[in-house]
Design brief:
Strand order of the largest sheet: 1-2-3
CATH topology of the largest domain: hpI Integrase, Chain A
Largest sheet: 3 strands, antiparallel
Structural class: mainly alpha
CATH architecture of the largest domain: Orthogonal Bundle
Number of strands: 8
Shape: elongated
Number of helices: 14
Strand content: 5-15%
Oligomer: single chain
CATH superfamily of the largest domain: Intergrase catalytic core
Distance between the termini: 76 Å
Helix content: 40-55%
Radius of gyration: 27 Å
CATH class of the largest domain: Mainly Alpha
């Protein structure tokens, strides 16, 4: 069986014959940006027909496939926050432009035009008022994964997103505080209601949701240890309980004496709030709550941190950057990468090394100098 490719306007189209029910018909698909892409697609289509036989392409639109098939199936397979990000990417960025297109009619050219449109579309992701490359790249990954499922289901013969280079996200410079800045911040928030939260995040590198998911029963003040068992996440305007991000995120983290002392002060303050609110206090065992004892929305914690930073006069960083600050301080003081990785709850030390490469490279240089000093008999 052979097929043909030809140029139609500015794009390329392929065609090949199939026989079904004793009748011969032509299968064609166009919209390919280059002859090579078109030829590769034809080869793949012919291969698929040879192994699986011809199947009628899906008559569903992209919106119907996403809303009625892919998103409902994925909901049971991923974390609520991940599913919400999938839905937001598709509903907010992809479907308004391609939702009415039949799944079988999607082309690489349409993918490329979508990415280009998103890169120039208004958004809140950057100071320029446009969607960032990181956001568009994430949207492209979600769309590509969904269409790959459509290929596996036999709804389309080939993934049109495979033939298009998605935007690559810009490298974002990591921001963190020096040890001196971290100490200055803690001194400035001594009377802050969330002082213990800021101290805990700097001392342990816990994620925001992990800190908000802590219960007093997770604390062992005598041993100076906290167990991370759950996380509080935002799904839209709602807060939901979820499991830690990875298997290794379910962990125990040792605490220093200063952090234990801050947590004890926080507990005493919380008991005073509980007595002041009386019967309307929301019963629970959460460490960090709103003043009435109810769970704290993750964004509220970030907003409170932003206000505290502004009052301190220190360089502005995000709440998540306290995690980076904690990791950088630990690595810079010579704590082994494996230990830092375990405290952060990374799934592997490779992730820790990759994220904090600039720190580990400095450590490598220092290690080389120390070993050289030993070999040369130079006293430290």
């Amino acid at each position: 069986m052979k097929g043909t490719v030809w140029k139609r306007g500015e794009t390329w189209t392929y065609q090949f014959p199939v026989t079904r029910g004793g009748r011969r018909r032509q299968i064609s698909k166009g919209g390919f940006c280059t002859k090579r892409e078109c030829q590769d697609a034809l080869t793949e289509a012919l291969s698929g027909y040879a192994t699986r036989g011809y199947s009628e392409p899906s008559k569903a639109t992209l919106a119907e496939f996403m809303r009625d098939d892919w998103l409902p199936r994925r909901r049971a397979q991923v974390r609520p926050t991940t599913w919400e990000s999938y839905r937001d990417s598709l509903e907010g960025r992809v479907l308004p432009h391609l939702g009415d297109v039949l799944l079988r009619d999607l082309t690489p050219k349409m993918m490329a035009e979508l990415y280009q449109h998103l890169l120039s579309a208004p958004g809140r992701d950057s100071h320029r008022g446009q969607l960032s490359k990181r956001t568009v790249a994430y949207t492209a990954r979600v769309l590509r994964a969904a269409l790959a499922d459509a290929v596996r289901q036999g709804a389309i013969p080939r993934n049109p997103a495979d033939a298009v280079d998605a935007p690559k996200p810009d490298n974002v410079e990591m921001r963190y505080w020096t040890p001196e800045q971290a100490r200055s911040f803690l001194e400035s928030v001594v009377d802050d209601r969330m002082e213990a939260a800021w101290r805990l995040l700097l001392a342990t590198g816990l994620r925001r949701g992990e800190a908000l998911g802590l219960k007093w029963s997770d604390m062992d003040f005598d041993l100076g240890r906290v167990c991370v068992r759950r996380t509080l996440v935002a799904v839209g305007y709602r807060v939901e309980w979820s499991t830690p991000k990875t298997k290794r995120s379910n962990r125990s983290v040792d605490l220093d004496d200063g952090t234990v002392a801050a947590l004890r002060r926080h507990r005493a303050r919380q008991l005073q709030e509980r007595m002041a609110w009386g019967e309307v206090w929301e019963q629970g065992d959460l460490v960090f709550t709103r003043e009435d004892g109810s769970p704290m929305h993750p964004q509220s914690l970030s907003t409170a941190f932003k206000r505290a930073v502004k009052s301190s006069g220190l360089p502005s960083i995000r709440l998540h950057d306290l995690r980076h600050s904690s990791a950088v301080m630990a690595l810079a003081t010579g704590i082994p990468t494996k230990v830092v990785s375990e405290r952060l709850g990374h799934s592997s030390t490779a992730i820790t090394t990759d994220i904090y490469q600039h720190v580990t490279e400095t450590m490598q240089r220092e290690a080389a100098d120390r070993i050289g000093a030993v070999l040369d008999g130079v006293s430290g």
